[in-house]
Specification:
312 residues, mainly alpha
Length: 312
């Protein structure tokens, strides 16, 4: 059977079943980490953030628990200090990192589900009216800044849950959908560009000749070569989504208190910076910095690794 995956001449003698997908993914991940020093630094930062976001809320206690030690500086009892209500900043930062990670991952996945099929279909029908309609719709979304769109949508629907018929959309999911909508044009454009290249390959013509349905050509064969650049863009967008969630929460448009997020913690900290509570904004800001820098560095390394010209 003709397949969309390209193989180097040095690999033609190796049977396809000799290497499992898990092994190939591990080798690709190892090559990415060892690509350069910046990628290795990014991988360490991402690992630190993931460990903090996943295990931090389990190990640090209740982020909403009040105490009498208000605006306490970092100590052995509270490594990140306490806020103006006596809540442990380490617990709140860990829970905020977890929420930011969940929002970022869910928004990127939702954006991929919407944008990749649309972009691939537009690329497969490149130059036709269908391609024009899809890409002009993408351009309209691209012209809307995320924060302007967020203020417009949340200004109309409110920051709380929204009832649409029998369906209730929680406020957190509205943030997820807004970030996913902002990411959609970028995913769709990358998917379309990669598909435009693939549809001119010989294997696509061969599949058409033998009568393989268009859906199978796109989502069983072409997608194999479209996936790498799309996944690079998705990895970069995780960093953007984490920052966007924090910014929306800082503006009061994201996850609402008492649930802690990096954004609303930083907003609360602005009122106490002049009082000498430097830890209030420093540690949550460092968590945000580690996440955005780490995901960006690994995404850049993955992009270089998958770019044939840069790889040479």
């Amino acid at each position: 059977m003709v397949t969309g995956a390209r193989r180097d001449s040095t690999q033609l003698s190796i049977p396809a079943q000799a290497t499992s997908p898990a092994v190939r993914a591990l080798r690709s991940f190892t090559r990415t980490i060892n690509h350069n020093w910046a990628t290795r630094v990014g991988a360490v930062l991402v690992l630190i953030y993931l460990l903090f976001a996943v295990f931090g809320p389990v190990l640090t206690g209740d982020p909403l628990e009040l105490s009498t030690k208000r605006l306490g500086s970092p100590s052995g009892e509270s490594l990140f200090g306490t806020d103006h209500l006596g809540r442990d900043m380490l617990a709140r930062s860990a829970d905020g990192a977890r929420i930011s990670l969940l929002v970022a991952v869910m928004s990127v996945l939702l954006g991929l589900i919407i944008a990749v099929p649309a972009g691939m279909f537009a690329g497969y029908r490149g130059g036709t009216m269908i391609d024009e309609v899809i890409m002009r719709a993408v351009d309209v979304i691209l012209a809307l800044p995320l924060f302007v769109l967020g203020m417009f949508v949340l200004g109309l629907t409110g920051i709380g849950p929204t009832q649409i018929g029998p369906i209730q959309i929680p406020g957190a999911w509205k943030v997820v959908m807004l970030i996913a909508l902002a990411a959609t044009p970028f995913f769709a454009r990358v998917a379309r560009a990669a598909t435009l290249v693939e549809v001119h390959e010989d294997y696509v013509d061969a599949l058409r000749v033998v009568g393989v349905p268009r859906r199978r050509i796109l989502f069983r064969e072409v997608i194999v070569n479209v996936a790498p650049p799309v996944l690079v863009q998705a990895f970069l967008w995780i960093a953007i989504a984490i920052f966007a969630e924090a910014a929306l929460s800082f503006l009061g448009l994201g996850i609402q208190p008492p649930a802690p997020t990096i954004g609303n913690i930083l907003f609360d900290a602005t009122a106490f910076m002049l009082l000498g509570a430097w830890w209030y904004s420093l540690f949550p800001g460092m968590v945000l910095l580690v996440a955005t820098v780490g995901f960006n560095l690994v995404g850049d390394g993955l992009n270089d690794l998958l770019d044939p010209q840069l790889r040479q």
